Description:
The protein is built from 18 helices and 17 strands.
Amino acid sequence: MPRAASTAKKTKSPRATATLRPPSIISAMDDPRLFAPFFRGPSWDGWRTVLKAAYGLPLSEPEISFFKSVAGDRAPPASRVRELWIPAGRRAGKDAATSLISAHTGALFNQQEKLRPGERALVLCLACDRVQARIILNYVRSYFTDIPLLAGMVTRETAEGFELNNGVDVAVGTNSFRAVRGRPILLAVLDELAYWRDENSAKPDEELYKAITPALATLDGMIVGISSPYRKAGLLYNKFKRHFGQDGDVLVIQASTRQLNPTIDQSIIDRAMAEDPAAARAEWMGEFRDDIGGWLPLEVIESSVDQGVAARPPHPALTYRSFTDASGGRGDSFTCAIAHDFQGIAVLDCVVEIPPPFNPMEAIAQVAAVLREYGVTETEGDAYAAGFNSEAFAACGITYRSTARDRSAIYTDALPLFTSGRVRLIDNRKMINQFAALERRTSSSGRDRVDHGPGGHDDLCNAAAGALVAAIVPSNRPQLYFA
């Protein structure tokens, strides 16, 4: 690249010059012909130190002092680390730094001999959704568009990203462990992974990490996980708990916003701290939250599942209860669950989910038909559009009663049923994952509130919990059957 240009005048792309003398990430960051225009000024010194350490480059005494302040007082790595995890405050420059790593890694790739014929290396940016992932992709693309030395490397734009002339694809994806298999990965960036949600997996971040690790082996690839921290659970927190302050080839950096981006006005952070200290410590100080925990461990929920039972057929000797989580037909599913009491055990028999978009009248008619199969003439639900729901269900021969209890109260009532082993669930993976993703939040008054996390859904598990709680009621009718 630039330093080899004077001795290799016929070179037309960074690919050839990288073979002669590839610049380090810091040399490239400080080179005015490369990334320096994007990282001007001393405000980037914190990131410069973090990147030096991550790549095993020498640090000055002041840099060592700063590094230890954000790395748990561990010694700087002697060589490039295998994994870099950064829980840091918002607006700390995480996306800009990881886009630099991505562009530098992709542009300087020269290990084609390790690939099979026709195989291409992958720089992969993963996030909770494609909108978030494309933030980094757009940063990376701008380097290859705006920097003359890199502009000639892009050979083709794709639906997922773009291709480079040195055998590298730069692409984005979502946090699906099924989508990353089969490709040799040069770099994997896991963006905002503390907030990943996937109803197809109870632990999408950990499943994806397991899928990515073998794909890195061929090219000695690197994982970079960045996020504002959230609750004390998941892959990012586990990496922090195990490796923060520990020597080795896994580096964890925990930093406040202003430690990495001193241009942020302190008064903004002060106001946030005054309004909501717990949230501000995570959002701006880079600390994991103490006030948010899980509702129940996945193992407890799984132990309540009757494996392979998708639904239980109606039985005339049983009295069934129902709960409906209604929706307007756009963002959330319309769900309904049916359950019964078997000698003090709440048994879930059936769940109905109508995903959006849908016509609410048609959805209610569909749910009512299932309720009639189980001999149910009444269903309970929250106060959402209670008037409309009452009229629409009544037209189908079903009474809809709104409950004063919100979803948090329902989950709180359902909790002892699970912990005492008095719940039997059907085998609905999406519902199970929703239960596992529920969060318990403690307010300043000490009162707990249970709900889904940011970006999550609880349509199925809310209906199921409501039906399970409703099923445990006194009854003179014998309950003889539940399998």
